[in-house]
């Protein structure tokens, strides 16, 4: 039986302890509490956003307040606009101001860099999925994920069972854990975990069955984030096939987060 999925449409969607600390760090930038919490989420997970995402986060209409916020970011050189199409009416906002990232302890975060439009849209897809579920705290970096799962699974799961890429040959090995760099969410009671996949290829990375199986209690949610509502069926079937290879399939639920660009 597939478990149900409970979500709420708006909210901070960041670890609340981190958010409180960042609020204090960003106080000198004369931003409102709501703007600060949104920017923390954007900087940690994507570096880019569109106006409708801020409107959804804030629970407001996509109108003057959204335009004023974007205009302030651009005027203060906190962000630049990426204009798409021949008319430039479709705009993506790229937050790149290094002091903002330094204020949250990540001055060299890769999200400061401008990337190709394809990768930019992938980042928007990630942000949509993160913003869609306020019930979980999101682990973003390799370090955060390793610390979290080692604390919970140290006695049950060997290092070689985590998703990883290995470079080089002994004794000069470099290991990158959770190489897909996608957020993993957990509820405060740690009984539900959320694994995010981007529906951008025919073959998503291997389902982390060993990790999921070792999380003996609770449910697993899988978010399929896509640039369009159609076309996720094959990815869902692929992930479900991978999940069936583990013991976790009965605890998997699916949700689609669709990304659209706005004007």
Short summary:
By secondary structure, this protein is an alpha+beta fold. It has a domain at 16-115: Arc Repressor Mutant, subunit A (Orthogonal Bundle), CATH 1.10.10.10.
Description:
The chain has helices at about 15-25, 35-45, 50-60, 65-75, 100-105, 115-130, 140-155, 210-215, 235-245, and strands spanning about 50, 80-85, 90-95, 135-140, 165-170, 170-175, 185, 190-200, 220-225, 250-260. α9 (about 235-245) links the parallel β9 (about 220-225) and β10 (about 250-260). The chain contains nine helices and ten strands. The chain is of the alpha+beta class. Helices cover about 35% and strands about 20% of the residues. The strands form three sheets. Strands 4-7-8-9-10 form a five-stranded mixed sheet. It has a domain at about 15-115: Arc Repressor Mutant, subunit A. The longest helix has 15 residues, at about 115-130.
CATH class of the domain at 16-115: Mainly Alpha
Measured distance between first and last alpha carbons = 41 Å
**Biggest β-sheet: strands ordered side by side in the sheet:** 4-7-8-9-10
How many helices? The count is 9
- Give the helix/strand class: alpha+beta
Strand tally: 10
Supply the CATH architecture of the domain at 16-115: Orthogonal Bundle
In angstroms, what is the radius of gyration?
A: 19 Å
Q: What proportion of the residues form beta strands (DSSP E)?
A: 15-25%
Mean pLDDT: 77
- Biggest sheet overview: 5 strands, mixed
- The general outline is globular
Q: Going by CATH, what is the homologous superfamily of the domain at 16-115?
A: Winged helix-like DNA-binding domain superfamily/Winged helix DNA-binding domain
Low-confidence stretches: 1-16
- Helix amount, in percent? 25-40%
Q: What is the N-to-C succession of helices and strands? A: HHEHHEEHHEHEEEEHEHE
Stated plainly, the CATH topology of the domain at 16-115 is called Arc Repressor Mutant, subunit A
């Amino acid at each position: 039986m597939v478990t149900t999925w409970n979500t709420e449409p708006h909210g901070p969607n960041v670890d609340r302890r981190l958010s409180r600390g960042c609020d204090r760090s960003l106080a000198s930038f004369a931003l409102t509490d709501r703007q600060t919490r949104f920017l923390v989420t954007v900087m940690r997970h994507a570096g880019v956003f569109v106006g409708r995402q801020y409107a959804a986060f804030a629970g407001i209409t996509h109108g003057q307040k959204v335009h004023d916020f974007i205009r302030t970011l651009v005027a203060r050189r906190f962000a630049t606009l990426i204009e798409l199409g021949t008319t430039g009416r479709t705009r993506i906002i790229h937050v790149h101001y290094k002091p903002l990232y330094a204020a949250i302890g990540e001055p060299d975060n890769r999200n400061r860099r401008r990337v190709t439009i394809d990768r930019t849209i992938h980042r928007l897809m990630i942000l949509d999925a993160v913003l869609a579920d306020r019930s979980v705290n999101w682990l973003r970096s390799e370090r955060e994920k390793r610390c979290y799962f080692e604390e919970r699974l140290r006695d049950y799961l060997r290092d070689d069972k985590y998703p990883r890429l290995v470079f080089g040959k002994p004794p000069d090995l470099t290991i990158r854990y959770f190489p897909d760099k996608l957020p993993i969410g957990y509820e405060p009671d740690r009984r539900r975990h959320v694994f995010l996949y981007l529906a951008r290829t025919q073959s998503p990375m291997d389902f982390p069955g060993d990790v999921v199986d070792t999380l003996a209690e609770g449910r697993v949610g899988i978010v399929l984030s896509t640039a369009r509502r159609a076309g996720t069926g094959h990815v869902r079937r692929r992930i479900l096939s991978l999940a069936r290879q583990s013991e976790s399939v009965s605890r998997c639920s699916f949700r689609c987060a669709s990304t659209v660009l706005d004007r």
